[in-house]
Amino acid sequence: MKLSLESQITLYPLSIQKDRKNYIVEEPVSGDFFEMPEICIDAMERINDGQLLGEIESKLQKKYPKEKVDIIEFGGQLMELGLIQEVNGEKVKQVKEIQSSGGFTWIPPRVGRFFFNRVTNKIYLILLMVNISLIVWNPELFPHYQDIFLFHSMMLNIITYMFISLFFIIIHEFGHILAIRSYDLPTKLDIGNRLIFVVFETDLTSAWKLAPKQRNILYFAGMAFEQTIVFIVLTIQLLFPSANGIFIGILGIIALDIVIKTLYQCCFYMKTDVYYFIENITGCYNLLERGKQFLSKWIPFLKIDSNETEPFEGECKVVRIYSAFYIGGMLLTLSLFVFYFVPQAYYAYSQVFSNLLRSTNSLAFWDAIAFLGQTVLLLILFLYAKKSRGNRSRVPFRGKR
Prior knowledge:
With 401 residues, this protein is α+β, with helices and mostly antiparallel strands. The chain has 2 domains: 9-91; 109-398, no CATH class. The chain has helices at residues 38-48, 53-63, 71-80, 109-115, 118-137, 154-181, 212-239, 245-264, 273-282, 287-295, 316-356, 363-389; strands at residues 9-11, 15-18, 23-27, 32-36, 84-87, 90-91, 189-194, 197-202, 397-398. It has a 4-stranded mixed beta sheet. Helix 4 (109-115) crosses helix 6 (154-181).
């Protein structure tokens, strides 16, 4: 449907709230969120007043002399975003997916507020500081890559680690779920991946209804639960160093799992919880896409979205700083692979291939076969998560000028 300066358009009902720098626009039917600058909000308010596009463009040019105003282009963008209901009284044909009510609404908000309130939020921060201090003062508590090899059976080692890791992934995600339910907002769980790891992801899209300060605890909620567990584990290891070997070994695996996951949160080339926190406090959303776009000038193999728009005013400095952290995150990942995952994989597969040379009547032989079968199963699960992930994201779509 073609727009002209004589066109009069009608928008779908929208919810608009001020963010740190720009505005967050919600389309309640589909549940989509968009970030837009003030001039766009001004234009939409004039559209809602029934003004013609040409009249709107003329008034905006006078009010924003430093801005390039093209109301036809903006109207086309609103059309692409599915925000226009009628043009000159004629219905715009489009199929809008009605957002689901979301899951976990059976959890009462008061339960979420029990775990996340002004007092507990400070306690979680204190526990993080205490955990760092305990490890600095007692370096032997820092996890070692061999902590995962608790038993002689490689299959049993991996199964133990998988169940522990899965359990604490669920604990982490329930932190996010309880935090968002404390504001009586719905959410759901998805399956995704980070690098080669299959993970659960809590949909925090509805968090854009909240003020920026309120969103911070939602991003740190999973880590808050993890740091509570790490504090308990480190305390037991310090107080009872001579406890049962298996028990202490399990605690070591728990510490290893959570510490590695915490370090991964600082890999800023991925959209981790810490990444979303940085986006939120700076008010510069889609930092990852902006950073990759900036770094692509020097790193040609980076994949970037050709449709990505230019940063909003004042964002360029933040993008440049973030780009340095992007590179730092890559170096951190490399360090984790060198000091943890490569030694673990080398030790595990060297034992497995050695056991394959044994007699088929040996338990070690069948342990190796089961281990390799498990590897194939994990690879299939990873590929499934990679395929099903699609374009799901916790961040809103960027509005365009």
